[in-house]
Amino acid sequence: QSVLTQSPSASGTPGQRVTISCSGSTSNIGSKPVNWYRQLPGTAPKLLVYSNDERPSGVPDRFSGSKSDTSAFLAISGLQSEDEADYYCAAWDDSLSAWVFGGGTKLTVL
Amino acid sequence: QVQLVESGGGVVQPGRSLRLSCAASGFTPSSYAMHWVRQAPGKGLEWVAVISYDGGDKYYSDSVMDRFTISRDNSKNTLYLQLNSLRVEDTAVYFCARGSYGSAKMGWFDPWGQGTLVTVSS
User: CA B104, B108, B24 angle in degrees (round to 5)?
Assistant: First the structure.
């Protein structure tokens, strides 16, 4: 059972907008920045969004992050087939004195 | 470019030990916190441990506390993870990742190495 809760799966058609959510508590998302990672099959994860809503160089602006209270959100607009991947949220947890990940959301492009 | 390369994985019996290494290049590791993250077969990511830029702060997940030890040798640009009292459930790909400039509790994980597989089996 992950400290951060994500829906196991999400789907959309090409061109659509999809939102992946990540639910936590006051000791993590509620008080700490959230980061998002994308993992393509058989590869290492890559940073997608950091500090809630910042994109690293090279990440298209189709990807956007946001946060509200103890939940964080990753929105992907203009969905493309290559967006099929696993998406993970992560944050520092003050109560656990540990970094925590969400269980991951598998995105399928129909 | 910034690169992390893990090594040291393999097949080991339950109760035995293993040491993983992560060689860094393309940046000055001594300025950054460094992490280990693992992924069991078919499962999600699980954070394992972090060490601050100077080795002064270390944090571990509950699942590995008192069994695993994270360390670093900044003179060799290398991060280590000593795995003791290994269990079948420690079987996973172990990734190292660069953390924040300085603090172990802040920042993000970027970049990641390609991972090294540890299999614990009798």
Answer: 75
